[in-house]
Design goal:
By secondary structure, this protein is α+β, with helices and mostly antiparallel strands. The chain is built from 9 helices and 14 strands. The chain folds into 2 domains: about 5-70, 2-Layer Sandwich (NE0471 N-terminal domain-like); about 85-295, 4-Layer Sandwich (Double-stranded beta-helix). It is elongated, with a radius of gyration of 24 Å. GO terms for molecular function: metal ion binding; trimethyllysine dioxygenase activity.
């Protein structure tokens, strides 16, 4: 492993440069000058660490395991390997379900929820009370709630109060939500509190798997999806339920992690940036989940 001296100085964990209570740097990056050099290095802690003596008199100490875990790699390892799935795989094995009590009270249960999200892109919490308050507690056990134009937590039904197809009885095909935001929510949570009649199936599809198929079949076209900026917008007229909004953002259809090369985001709405056959591919790969009222996804 070859580590640049400037990187080591910038990541010095001494109290002068790093606040261990706030986990934030104290140092101004202007201290990283061209004249900065290492005078000498000493191994410490039975060769499990080392101390650097700099030409300006500063001293930095590092542990070998910290350095190995924090220095940039060409392809960072993921603790949980992503699994590309389709309808056949999901129908051949149990869905990734975590009991509500485990999710809320056990660290292992919460870890399983997080692992499912990293592995499959979704996780189900089973057994939650059918209230917005109970749902919010499940969410806050995992992360903070992000504000949107709909609020933080909100309930809706097919009453047409908002200018969104989700507020109708029209079936929704595969899509990603909030693409019109500069930073779309990384995790969305849905909980059916009440259901009467028929319909209401939830359609799940592994968009990253579909992208992998697309990249394999049409590498040049796929490359365009990572470079060409596409507009996304949401328009809503003022009403009793809303002051009215017009949100607009620009972004590529696909975002790739700059170091690992993994997919990190897909913005997919019918008619924006992807060919029609991609939508048909999503339908072919998707699986329907018939949620009982105590399922949270």
């Amino acid at each position: 492993m070859v580590v640049p001296a400037v990187w080591l100085r910038d990541h010095c964990m001494s109290p002068e440069y790093y606040n261990h209570e706030t986990q934030q740097k104290n140092a101004d990056p202007n201290h990283l000058t061209r004249n900065l050099k290492i005078d000498s290095v000493e191994l410490t802690d039975n060769d499990c660490g080392f101390t650097i003596f700099w030409n300006d008199g500063h001293v930095s100490k590092f542990a070998m395991d910290w350095l190995q875990g924090n220095y940039y790699k060409e392809k960072p390892d993921s603790a949980t390997k992503r699994v590309y799935w389709d309808k056949n795989l999901m129908e051949s094995q149990p869905l990734p379900i975590v009991p509500h009590e485990d999710h809320m009270k056990l660290e292992a249960g919460l870890a399983e929820t997080v692992s499912n999200l990293c592995k499959y892109g979704f996780s189900i919490v089973e057994g939650c009370k059918e209230t917005e308050e109970a749902t919010e507690k499940v969410v806050e056990r995992l992360s903070f709630v992000q504000e949107t134009l709909f609020g933080k937590m909100w309930t809706f039904t097919s009453d047409g109060l908002r200018s969104d197809t989700a507020y109708s009885t029209q079936a929704l095909g595969s899509h990603t939500d909030l693409s019109y935001m500069e930073t779309p929510a990384g995790i969305q949570v849905f909980h059916c509190l009440k259901h009467t009649g028929s319909g209401g199936e939830t359609l799940l599809v592994d968009g990253f798997h579909a992208l992998d198929v697309f990249r394999e079949a049409y590498p040049e076209d796929f490359e365009l999806l990572t470079k060409i900026v596409v507009p996304h917008e949401y328009k809503e007229e003022p009403s009793d339920a809303s002051p009215g909004y017009h949100l607009y953002s620009l972004g590529t259809t696909v975002r790739i992690h700059p170091a690992s090369g993994e997919f990190i985001q897909l913005r997919y709405v019918v008619g924006y940036g992807l060919p029609d056959w991609f939508g048909r591919l999503l339908i072919h790969m998707s699986c329907k989940v018939y949620f009982m009222k105590n399922y949270i996804i």
